[in-house]
């Protein structure tokens, strides 16, 4: 029986800036329905890896594939269809200050998918409920929410269109440990609810251990280790050991 193609794959991907290779023939594949967290020190290319998968950058060589097919170009309907299959939780939430919470959550539905505002509001309220935010916050503005509530609203925006792939960019940065734990639990719940594939980048090992089925260590532009969260403390890989010990 033929094995299905990975849901998402970086195949021999190189990306340079100023002549320096941030990613050097990166190979990484993620099976459908799996949650993979990419860890690594600052400047190792985690954000670049994510941006390439989102089509926000082009690789200098190699390919990024979705369901075995190279990602489309940077213009036209193909790119819009790609974005329609993905949801993103940005670092810092990245909510629009001038829009209410529900308008933030429904932004894609209204502006990209053409969903009428009344129906989009209903879906936004349902998404807010999924992340344990009451309907009373819907007409507030982001500045009226705590940092943790803003992050929940941003998660609701990421999942409102039932994406096939979710991307999480440092999902717990700037949050206190209790709030971070809540966000991690919500991420796990939403990934399971949707049955989607999840790709995360983080410096937070507590977050990685919670949300990951597998963890991949990015170092020197390549994946140097990959394993289950429970294997982090057992590996002899020097880069992983330094990172776990806080020396990366």
In words, what does this structure look like?
The chain is of the alpha/beta class and 248 residues long. It has a domain at 1-74 and 199-248: P-loop containing nucleotide triphosphate hydrolases (Rossmann fold), CATH 3.40.50.300. It is 34% helix and 24% strand. It contains nine helices and ten strands. The protein has helices spanning 46-53, 77-84, 101-105, 107-111, 117-130, 147-159, 177-194, 205-211, 238-244; strands spanning 8-17, 20-30, 35-39, 61-66, 69-70, 86-89, 165-169, 197-201, 214-219, 222-227. The radius of gyration is 18 Å and the shape is globular. The protein starts with 7 loop residues before the first strand and ends with a helix. The model has no long low-confidence stretch (mean pLDDT 90).
Could you give the topology of this structure?
Layout: E1 8-17, E2 20-30, E3 35-39, H1 46-53, E4 61-66, E5 69-70, H2 77-84, E6 86-89, H3 101-105, H4 107-111, H5 117-130, H6 147-159, E7 165-169, H7 177-194, E8 197-201, H8 205-211, E9 214-219, E10 222-227, H9 238-244
Please give a quick description of this structure:
With 248 residues, the chain is an alpha/beta fold. It has helices at residues 46-53, 77-84, 101-105, 107-111, 117-130, 147-159, 177-194, 205-211, 238-244; strands spanning 8-17, 20-30, 35-39, 61-66, 69-70, 86-89, 165-169, 197-201, 214-219, 222-227.
